[in-house]
Amino acid sequence: MTQPMPIRRAHSRPRLLDLFSCAGGAGMGYARAGFAVDGCDIADRPNYPFAYHQGDALTYLAALITSGEIRRYAFVHASPPCQHGCALTVGTNASQGWGGTHVDLVAPTRDLLDKTGLPYVIEQPNGRAEIRKDLTLCGEMFGLGVIRHRNFELGGWTTVPPVHVAHRGRVRGWRHGRFYDGPYVAAYGNGGGKPSIPELQAAMGITWTDMREELTEAIPPAYTEWIGRAHLATDALGAAA
User: Fold this and answer.
1) What sign does the dihedral 88-92-95-96 (CA atoms) show?
2) Which residues touch 184 (CB under 8 Å, ≥6 apart)?
3) Per residue in 85-131, pLDDT tens?
4) For residue 182, with 0-12 CB atoms within 10 Å meaning exposed, 13-18 middle and 19 or more buried, which class applies?
5) What SS3 string covers the chain?
6) Residue 155: which residues within 8 A CB-CB, separation 6 or more?
7) Which of 61, 99, 176, 190 would you call most buried, defined as having the most Cβ atoms within 10 angstroms of its Cβ?
């Protein structure tokens, strides 16, 4: 399903395309930074808080490029599926023979993003995903109740990365038969002392969905609010130069 997307005009908020959008953790941060946001995800996402297209993100992006409609946008964020290269897949799951094969969409995503001619961000978790780690953000940088390290490759623009501050303790939960307390909750999975839905919402700064799957896959909005503000400041400096 596709909702109408207004044409970007000079007096309006710059429009951002949020690819592989899930329930809108990234999109909400960009909206708070000052963007008008349109999302695209292959799954039905009724909780997504902005205009939304359901479909394959790369097929949709290719169609926007071919039609010229990509010119509606000033910026693109992409969070391609991360299971192929994430630390859990290449670490514990691989050593135990758990899980299956996963598609790596980072390279084809980057190829299409480069064709847009727009500044962009590709997001991935820690692991072996082949992206430049131009930024690494952590929940402690924003006073959140999760650590949730995420890496961001910046295409067509740069900014000074923030300092990675020390963590205040452990992530709460069971590890190898022992329970550890700590100031952070584990934003993944179900067992092992994982947080309740309200705890997870509070820790991530996400209130518009109460689906555990959506919460555990989300980027805290604080991360992309920081990125969005950094890009808009960079863009303003470039226009003034």
Assistant:
1) negative
2) 139, 145, 146, 147, 167, 169, 170, 171, 172, 203
3) 544 444 444 444 544 555 789 999 999 999 999 999 999 998 888 99
4) middle
5) CECCCCCCCCCCCCEEEEECCCCCHHHHHHHHHCCEEEEEECCCCCCCCCEEEECCHHHHHHHHHHHCHHHHCCEEEECCCCCCCEHHHHHHHHHHCCCCCCCCCHHHHHHHHHHHCCCEEEEEECECCCCCCCEEECHHHHCCCCCCCEEEEEECCCCCCCCCCCCCCCECEEECCEEECCCECCCCCCCCCCCCHHHHHHHHCCCCCCCHHHHHHCCCHHHHHHHHHHHHHHHHHHHHC
6) 110, 113, 114, 119, 120, 121, 122
7) 61
Residue recorded with tokens 């596709």: 2
Determine the residue type at 218. Answer: A
The answer to whether the predicted template modeling score (pTM) of the entire model surpasses 0.90 is no
Tens digits of residue pLDDT in 66-84: 999 999 999 999 999 976 5
Provide the β-strand partners of residue 41: 54
Contacts of 232 (CB under 8 A, 6+ apart): 14, 33, 34
The residue type of 2 is T
Residue 11 in tokens:
């007096």
